[in-house]
Amino acid sequence: MSADEANKKLKQDLEDTRNDLKRAADEIRVKMHLAGMDAKDAWEEIQPRLEDFERRFDEKADAVSGELKALGSDIKQRLLNIKAKLKSE
Fold it and tell me: What pTM, to 2 d.p., does this model score?
C-alpha cells in the first residue's frame, strides 16, 4: 500500500468515525428529549395527586396528629418497658 493510499484510508476511517459519533450523538439527543417529555408527562400526572394529598393532609392533620401522638406515646412506653426487661435479665 502506498503512502497516498494509506492516507486516503486513514482519512476515510476518520470520516467514518466522525459519522458514527454524529449518529450516536443524534440518537442520544433524541432519546434524552423523549425521556424529558416522559418525565414531564409523569410529573403532570402526579401533580394533581400531590396537591390532593396536601389538601387532605391540611384538612385532617389536627385529628390525625392527636391520634398519632397517642399511638406514638403508647409505642414509646411499650419500648421502654421492653428495654427495662432486657436490662433486668
Answer: 0.45
Task: Please give the chain's pLDDT, 89 residues, in tens.
Answer: 788 888 888 888 888 898 899 899 888 888 878 878 887 888 788 889 888 888 887 887 777 777 888 888 999 999 999 988 888 76
Q: Which residue has the cell 387532605?
A: 56
Return the C-alpha cell found at 1.
500500500
Contacts for 65 with CB less than 8 Å, ≥ 6 apart: none
Residue 62 CA neighbour count, 13 Å, CB half: 1
As a whole number of angstroms, the distance between CA 23 and CA 10 comes to: 20
